[in-house]
Amino acid sequence: MRTYFLMLVVIVTGCCGVVSGADRPPNFVVIYCDDLGYADIGPFGAKGYKTPNLDRMAAEGMKFTDFHSAAAVCSASRVALMTGCYPQRVGILGALGPKAKIGINEEEILLPEVLKPKGYATAIFGKWHLGDNPRFLPTRHGFDRYFGLPYSNDMWPNHPTNGKNYPPLPLIENETVVQAMPDQTQLTTWYTERAVQFIADSKDRPFFLYVPHSMPHVPLFVSDKFKGTTERGLFGDVIAEIDWSVGQILAALKQHNIDEQTLVLFSSDNGPWLSYGNHAGSAGPLREGKATTWDGGHLEPTLARWPGKIPGGRICRELCGTIDVLPTFAKLAGLEPPKDRIIDGLDIWPLMTAEPNAKTPHDHFYYYWNYGLEAVRGGPWKLHLPHEYQALAVPGKDGKPGRYKKTKIDQSLYNLATDVGETTNVADKNPEVVQRLLAIAEEARADLGDSLTNRPGANLRPAGQLK
């Protein structure tokens, strides 16, 4: 089925050049940060630095206060964005390291491939993290251009605790390593410059631009133009530079008169890596952070802007997330997601346009850590199932990690409408809600499996495997 799909892409894109007027589908830009906390940008309460371009995005577009990543860790969260699926469904979990033996399966149809039949130009400038073997790189999966790191920027010999386990960090252009151990102070600038150039090159046809920044994942690096410019120190400087990058991309859209043809989405892969103390972000009122199924790990500061289509100054409080990006973009492009496989995401365009009485299309949401089902969501209710997790014990400082402690939670129910911090267990007062969510958990186990209860999933697809 995928072969037929890609043949169709070749046939259609082969006859597509300049597309204009009413026949032209919208452009899409996804700006995706790494380890950005819920309270790390101005529209969500950041302190110690300013984010004027992101503030403008919120004023001219929509702020989402219940937008979730499908995982609280790098590779798993990114595969969900690219496939519209829970990461367990497609076999990519955790954070893939250098020379990983698995990566994105070539049978999966990624977001850029979904858009290709309408003649989209596609590019990624930033961190990929779905496999570093050439077989797994973006150029083999629907992207015309790639420039960036194949995995996290701490997976290098200078890692503060694990350096001996990592080779020199590669900077890749398309499929060629163009630098080893690149100057990381230039990463945000390089990604931005290439994004702006891609917009100029692609202005006469629809395009999908994906900018997954390496920052603010540790180790933190910032260019001289932003070094020492904020009260928050290095972390604030890094966010200020990301905000500058957003401004450069928005300015390029205006310069080429395609601002009103372009949907820009800003979000992050998972919450803050709290272990790194003053080099980590903040989840604000949310509990815990990265690598947990508390909302501090999953709930992302998200903005969407499309002048004339998405109303300005609005707030969406409905449940949605990264798995919804693929089906929503497909619909806007006049396409459909692949029909020969399960796609977990749903169309959230009615939420983006503030359609009267629009509600989340999801009646549930699953929270997994690897293959373990740790929590389920239905409406405002979130039920944590018994599991262990790593809670911050002592934060680190200046690029050195602190300590976590292993903690266990028993079955617990939280009403997120009144308790965003997941502080008060109300299971005893709401037994009928607990039973309803336990039934949802059973559906998840039957579908995707659950290592905590030794349940195999019926609808899993394998990752790509190297021989």
Describe the structure.
Helices cover 24% and strands 19% of the residues. It contains eleven helices and 20 strands. About 3% of the residues have low confidence.
CATH architecture of the largest domain: 3-Layer(aba) Sandwich
* CATH class category of the largest domain: Alpha Beta
Q: Distance between termini?
A: 23 Å
What profile does the largest beta sheet have? 10 strands, mixed
The figure for the number of domains is 2
Uncertain segments of ≥5 residues (pLDDT<50)? 7-18
**Tally of alpha and pi helices:** 11
Strand-pairing-aware structural class: alpha/beta
- The strand line-up of the biggest sheet is 8-7-6-5-9-1-10-11-2-12
Quick overview:
This protein has 467 residues and is an alpha/beta fold.
Question: How are the SSEs ordered, and which strands pair?
Answer:
Blueprint: H1 2-14, E1 27-33, H2 52-60, E2 62-64, E3 67-68, H3 74-83, H4 87-90, E4 102-103, H5 111-115, E5 121-125, E6 145-148, E7 170-173, E8 176-180, H6 187-202, E9 207-212, H7 234-255, E10 262-268, H8 295-298, E11 302-305, E12 314-316, E13 320-321, H9 325-332, H10 349-352, E14 365-369, E15 372-378, E16 381-384, E17 387-394, E18 403-409, E19 412-415, H11 431-448, E20 464-465
Parallel strand pairs: 1-9, 1-10, 2-12, 3-13, 5-6, 5-9
Antiparallel strand pairs: 2-11, 4-20, 6-7, 7-8, 10-11, 14-15, 15-16, 16-19, 17-18
Identify the notable features of this structure and list them briefly.
467 residues; alpha/beta; Alkaline Phosphatase, subunit A; Arylsulfatase, C-terminal domain; 10-stranded mixed β-sheet; 4-stranded antiparallel β-sheet; 20 strands; 19% strand; globular
